[in-house]
Design goal:
CATH class: Mainly Alpha
Helix content: 55-70%
CATH superfamily: Rhomboid-like
Distance between the termini: 16 Å
Order of helices and strands: HHHHHHHHEEHH
Shape: globular
Structural class: mainly alpha
Strand order of the largest sheet: 1-2
Number of strands: 2
Oligomer: single chain
Number of domains: 1
Strand content: under 5%
CATH topology: Rhomboid-like fold
Length: 240
């Protein structure tokens, strides 16, 4: 079994600690400062929106990683970030780990937006045809435009893309390390990684109606994480 035995191990390294704090504070702000009665919307400003949306802003490629939908969402992401990210930060150091974290998160966001743009290609073309022709007052046109706007204005939020990158990096570096599912079911990291990635890829390709999980962001974060750690390991084996 592959094990991680650094000369000195910090169970809560600097970057992990600060990411946990920032995510916690942002979640608190989402549910207090910007509550249901507030005119200020964290999601409109900081969550990720489609390129086609009037709500899209470039900074959302980063800020969406610090927002979460509910307590279960943030707890799951932060637990995985601490479990797997702490080991990677101890190996790489804070600067390289932080770079990896943001590259995975931004890469996941770009892949998500790219797939979304592809899915919306025909609808976007039809939308602009309606606007150009001025034929926007019929019942069908009004219904279509309302559904189109609702689709492009959906907010995507969470650190899941970056966390998937971290998970895949851990799996690649320590494939035979045992992970305890629900704290008592042992499974090697490589099998957990394969199963989890396959699960996300299956549902991303299935694209079921009503599935509000950004599956392609998860898949994208995993792919970016794998490519990065593969290249880094080839270039500098002393870190591994």
């Amino acid at each position: 079994m592959t094990q991680f035995r650094p000369s000195s191990y910090n169970s809560l390294p600097t970057i992990i600690k600060n990411l946990l704090i920032i995510n916690g504070l942002m979640f608190l702000a989402q549910n207090t400062i910007a509550g249901p009665t507030s005119a200020f919307s964290f999601e409109d400003i900081f969550a990720l929106h489609a390129f086609q949306s009037d709500l899209f802003r470039p900074w959302q490629l980063i800020t969406h990683m610090f927002l979460h939908g509910d307590l279960g969402h943030i707890f799951g992401n932060m637990l995985a970030l601490w479990m797997f990210g702490s080991i990677l930060e101890n190996i790489w150091g804070p600067k390289q780990f932080l770079l990896f974290y943001f590259l995975c998160g931004v890469g996941a966001a770009m892949i998500h937006l790219g797939i979304l743009s592809f899915e919306l290609m025909d609808a976007t073309k039809y939308y602009h045809e309606l606007i150009t022709s001025g034929a926007t007052q019929t019942a069908d046109a009004i219904d279509f435009m309302a559904r189109y706007k609702a689709r492009i204005d959906v907010a995507t939020l969470g650190a899941s893309g970056a966390v998937f990158g971290i998970l895949i990096a851990f799996v690649y570096l320590f494939p035979n390390t045992y992970i305890y599912i629900y704290f008592f079911i042992p499974m090697k990291a490589k099998w957990l990684g394969i199963l989890y990635f396959s699960y996300e890829l299956f549902f991303a390709l299935k694209n079921s109606a009503g599935d509000n999980v950004a599956r392609w962001a998860h898949v994208g974060g995993a792919l970016v994480g794998f490519v990065l750690v593969y290249i880094w390991k080839k270039r500098n084996r002393r870190f591994y």
